[in-house]
Specification:
The complex is a heterodimer of chains A (377) and B (627). By secondary structure, chain A is α+β, with helices and mostly antiparallel strands. Helix content of chain A is 32%, strand content 39%. Chain A is built from seven helices and 18 strands. In chain A, strand 16 and strand 17 form a beta hairpin. By secondary structure, chain B is mainly alpha-helical. In chain B, 67% of the residues lie in helices and 4% in strands. In chain B, the strands form four sheets. Chain B has a two-stranded antiparallel ribbon. Chains A and B meet through helix 2, helix 3, helix 5, strand 14 and strand 17 of A and helix 22 and helix 23 of B.
């Protein structure tokens, strides 16, 4: 066991802490600078939500040059746990240190859980509109909607990354298979038909698709497009162009059932509906500086027997059924309100962990202060 | 954490008996300075028979808040020329310049106020770059279309990607736009007899009413005669830079402030003009015709009317006018320089007298600084830090307060010295930031929360203050080590403990501030941490302070290395405070500063140079603990 003790002792060393701190600082600097060109979303993925940061272009293969945020987090967690096992003294004098570092473990864990579990989406809604879903504007899905039944729509959703693999897609409940012939991670739809266009059905026959390089900056999104062929067994029903830029579904019939296909931002359906009744955008008089944004929404939730109005405005979100709805932005001449919808089961962890860290710091530093004051007296 | 045992507390440099001079010189100096300060609080001496002081005290609505005309004048002149007075004609104060702009367009158009530094922009208007930086509107007038065209083009480019020329030409475009608006706020720029015009409008209204009663057709003369006037008043509405006319609401209702155009148009619904409409017309006519008595009469009548109807706004405007005149931050900046000189002298000779005098003047400077800070809190109705300018004021205030406490505890003149340096530097930074616009601007909706402004922002700013203080102390350590013949182990130990204490303080407040920011973000848009540049900057300060603490705790760095790290903290804090704003992205982008980047670089190099002092050989030899 002596060998194990020595290893743990090594892992608990302050030198390793300093290395972790230093690496984190380097990551933060590099990641922040990268945001200018990459956009916050991409920079986060590359620098903080990854295990390694790779260098491209210098050599024919990619090799890691820096540990990513997740790796540093793991090393740091090991260092902290080892310190609790082998370094910290469990005396009253070191109470502050113990609490602080325990809070830190909790903070790291919480942030990791948030990264893994949190889901954010958007809910753009116009005045008078009723919606029961939110959208992820950067993720797309191919929605196949069975519209045969007048009362219910049956939606089968195929995430865009599955389409990107260009394989044959089978879904239970669908009497046909989907074959992806071409997939464009970012594209531009033109109104001029292309001779090489494989589309034989729908609007695709009179449109063209131009592939363009994918974007990651904050104010641009990718237009995803694909040519898909729908086959019933061996019989081909035709090839359609689907794109997140089309704005409307295309429909076809098969075996007495009517289907709509729609490439759209990924939807997250809600078990209730929201109606936007009013939206207010107040400016300070005589300026363009926004004073307040507020949305009056009506929640209609028959299952929970809720039917009420509520106000969502800056710094005052709606918390309902495990998700939180924040006033994020607006548009269309103040007739469109956009909510940010967040679901994060680990939301409490920063509150708890930071309280612990601050408490620990306060105890530790106050003890020092009193010792100093006593010596001076 | 084990602490090294230190023999004694360092001895203070004062003699046992305090001589008469040592006791009273500080008070005499304070007395003289006090008199100087009080005299500065009085309104400025009048330059002519026109009573510019009550004119500057007139309240108007601009930028969403009520402010005195004096503030509008100062901020506008600052935005256009970079200064609060006009050099030509013997330092014309801003309010006088504004009166010229509003009432005497032809004279104002010849005044050289537009500051243009960019050689390409100068080339655009056909002028070679020379020592002359200020140009008049008439010089720019022939090129207005071209400037506007270039500005529109530059505006289409994304802010971060604009070239220097594009930023400069956009800047000139906005200056010209502001000038144009000021000229067309209370009257049209070229109007000569405003009161006559208003009376004429009244008559036309009367005729149109009669015509309406007689059911005459709407293209008959009485109506078409009005059309031109209606256009003019609408033009005034669209060009208004501020709203000068209050419509006092019934009890409990907020007063609405309207533009001059609307005020004149209201005459169609009311039996009389709003008194402000006629007052400004009379003031303008009198000013143009060099008639001070008429000007003053109209002004004072109107002021009495305002005092009756909107007494709170008059009081607020008066308070802000006094604040503007007193310039508390400029005064305390000067006093900090004096403290520095006195503290420096105390190291050379008569330490007792100079030390006490320096500390006394420091307290006076701090009092003035505090007065200014509190005035801002009252005037804005907000916690102390609401924008970059006020953060600079507060960082200085916090650092000086900590320095005063240090000086009381250790009495070596070090506390006074670093307070003076940080106080002066932060106020200079604030002074330059003031040229970005109204320093008491309204908060955007997402930042509009007094609770978070008072907690998160204040804690972060305290974190900046204390990190700068520990950095300054580290610099003192490194400098004294190389140049001070009285350097010894006790002195080193004292400074080292000061730095350690401040670093602990910094860690606490910067961490607290950072997580409060995270909680605010979580409450506002559902994300505790988003790797936003400003969040990252704050995190860097926390990480660096923690790094120092762990390096010290693990005995992995010598005393002088810790001091080097403390100095580097200045670089990190400066970047976190200003550098992230220059990236222009994320939720924290307040504005753009080109010159500021150069200064940030200069500051960084200076701090690195100070860190380099650690590698020079010490004056009095190495100590045991490797200092």
């Amino acid at each position: 066991m002596d060998k194990l003790e020595r290893i743990v002792d090594r892992l608990a060393s302050v030198k390793l802490t300093l290395v972790c701190l230093g690496l984190t600082m380097v990551l933060v600097v590099v990641g922040t600078l990268a945001q200018v060109h990459m956009g916050t979303f991409a920079a986060q993925k590359v620098y903080f939500n990854s295990f390694w940061i790779y260098q491209h272009g210098l050599l024919p293969f990619k090799f890691p040059i820096l540990p990513g945020g997740l790796t540093v987090g793991v090393i740091w967690m090991v260092n902290l746990l080892a310190a609790f096992a082998a370094r910290f003294k469990y005396t009253k004098r070191d109470l502050g240190i113990l609490i602080t570092h325990f809070g830190l473990i909790f903070l790291l864990l919480g942030q990791f859980l948030t990264q893994m579990l949190a889901q954010e989406s958007q809910l753009p809604i116009e005045i008078g509109q009723t919606k029961n879903y939110s959208e992820s504007p950067r993720e797309n899905e191919l929605a196949i909607v069975d519209k045969t039944d007048a009362e219910h729509d049956q939606v089968t959703s195929i995430p865009a990354p599955l389409l990107a693999r260009k394989e044959t897609i089978r879904a239970s409940g669908l009497p046909f298979t989907i074959h992806v012939h071409k997939f464009f991670p970012n594209s531009r739809i033109t109104m001029t038909p292309q001779l090489t266009s494989p589309a034989t059905q729908g609007v695709g026959a009179s449109m063209g698709v131009q592939e363009i390089p994918p974007v990651t900056t904050d104010d641009e999104i990718n237009i995803v497009s694909a040519y898909i062929e729908i086959k019933e067994g061996d019989k081909s029903l035709g090839t359609w162009l689907v794109s997140s830029d089309l704005g409307a579904p295309q429909s076809f019939s098969i075996g007495g059932r009517t289907f709509e296909i729609y490439l759209r931002p990924r939807r997250h359906y809600l078990p209730f509906t929201l109606t936007l009744k009013e939206f207010h955008h107040d400016l300070y008089p005589g300026t363009e500086i926004p004073k307040n944004f507020s949305s009056l929404v009506h929640i209609n939730d028959p299952a929970a027997q809720e039917s009420r109005d509520t106000l969502i405005y800056m710094n005052h979100p709606l918390r309902y059924r495990g998700k939180t709805y924040y006033q994020a932005s607006f548009g269309k001449n103040n007739t469109l309100s956009v909510f940010q919808v967040v679901e994060n089961p680990a939301w409490l962890t920063p509150y708890i962990s930071c309280t612990l860290v601050i408490l620990g710091l306060a105890i530790q530093f106050l003890m020092h202060l009193f010792a100093f004051a006593k010596r001076r007296a | 954490m084990k602490k090294k045992k230190v023999s004694t507390t360092p001895p203070s440099p004062e003699p046992q008996q305090i001589s008469w001079t040592t006791k009273w010189v500080p008070w005499i100096v304070i007395g003289i300075l006090g008199i100087y300060l009080l005299s500065a609080a009085r309104p400025p001496a009048p330059r002519s028979a026109f009573r510019m002081t009550p004119f500057g005290q007139l309240p108007v609505l601009n930028g969403g808040r009520i402010k005195p005309l004096d503030t509008v004048a100062r901020v506008s002149l600052l935005l256009i020329s970079g200064k609060q007075s006009v050099r030509s004609q013997g330092r014309m104060p801003a309010i006088e310049w504004l009166a010229n702009v509003m009432f005497k367009a032809s004279e104002a158009n010849d005044t050289r106020v537009f500051e243009i530094n960019d050689p390409d922009v100068l080339g655009l208007i056909g002028i070679q770059q020379s020592k002359e930086r200020f140009f008049s509107f008439n010089q720019l007038h022939p090129h207005l279309t071209e400037i506007e065209r270039q500005a529109i083009q530059a505006n289409n480019v994304k802010a971060e990607l604009r070239s220097r020329f594009q930023r400069a030409v956009l800047n000139l475009g906005s200056k010209l736009m502001l000038y144009h608006r000021l000229q067309n706020t209370v009257q049209l720029a070229d109007e000569k007899n405003v009161r006559e015009g208003l009376l004429e409008f009244e008559r036309k209204l009367g005729k149109a009413m009669d015509a309406h009663m007689k059911n005459m057709s709407s293209d008959s003369d009485p109506f078409t005669a009005l059309a031109h006037d209606l256009d003019r008043f609408q033009f005034l509405n669209h060009s208004a830079e501020f709203n000068p006319l209050p419509l006092p609401g019934s009890a409990g209702e907020k007063t609405e402030w309207i533009a001059m155009g609307d005020g004149a148009l209201m005459r169609s619904r009311l039996p009389l003009y709003h008194p402000g409409v006629l007052a400004f017309a009379d003031m303008g006519d009198a000013y143009r015709n060099d008639n001070p008595s008429a000007f003053n009469a109209a002004l004072l009548d109107y002021t009495s009317w305002l005092k009756e109807r909107v007494p709170d706004d008059i009081a607020h405007a008066r308070h802000e006018f006094t604040f503007n005149t007193f310039e508390p931050f400029y005064k305390s900046m000067v006093l900090y320089v004096l403290v520095f000189i006195l503290a420096f002298c105390s190291w050379l000779f008569a330490p007792a007298i100079f030390n006490r005098t320096a500390f006394a003047v420091l307290l006076l400077a701090f009092t003035v600084h505090t007065l200014g800070l509190f005035s801002r809190i009252i005037l804005q109705g907000r916690p102390p830090v609401t924008n970059l300018y006020s953060s600079a004021i507060f960082v200085g205030w916090g650092a000086v307060l900590l320095g005063i406490i240090l000086e009381r505890l250790f009495r070596r003149g070090i506390g006074s010295m670093v307070s003076a340096v940080i106080g002066f530097l932060t106020l200079i930074v604030a002074h330059h930031l003031a040229s970005q616009g109204d320093t008491m601007e309204m908060m955007r909706a997402v930042l509009d929360s007094n609770f978070w402004l008072a907690t998160h922002v204040v804690c972060i700013t305290i974190g900046y203050s204390s990190t700068f203080l520990s950095g300054a102390l580290g610099a003192v350590y490194l400098a004294r080590r190389v140049w001070d013949p009285t350097w010894n182990e006790d002195a080193a130990e004292a400074l080292s403990r000061m730095v350690y204490g401040i670093v602990c303080f910094s860690t606490f407040f910067s961490f607290l501030g950072t997580i409060l920011g995270g909680i605010w973000a979580d409450q506002s848009w559902g994300r505790f941490w988003g790797w936003d540049p400003k969040e990252n900057g704050a995190l860097m300060i926390v990480l660096w302070n923690v790094f120092i603490l762990h390096a010290r705790w693990g005995r992995l760095a010598k005393q002088k290395s810790i001091m080097q790290m403390a100095v580097f903290g200045n670089v990190i804090t400066a970047f976190s405070w200003f550098g992230v704003n220059m990236l222009g992205i994320g939720l924290h982008s307040y504005g753009f500063m080109d010159k500021a980047f150069v200064w940030l670089m200069i500051f960084t190099v200076s701090q690195l140079a100070i860190m380099g002092l650690a590698y020079a050989s010490p004056k009095t030899g190495d100590f045991q603990n490797g200092a």
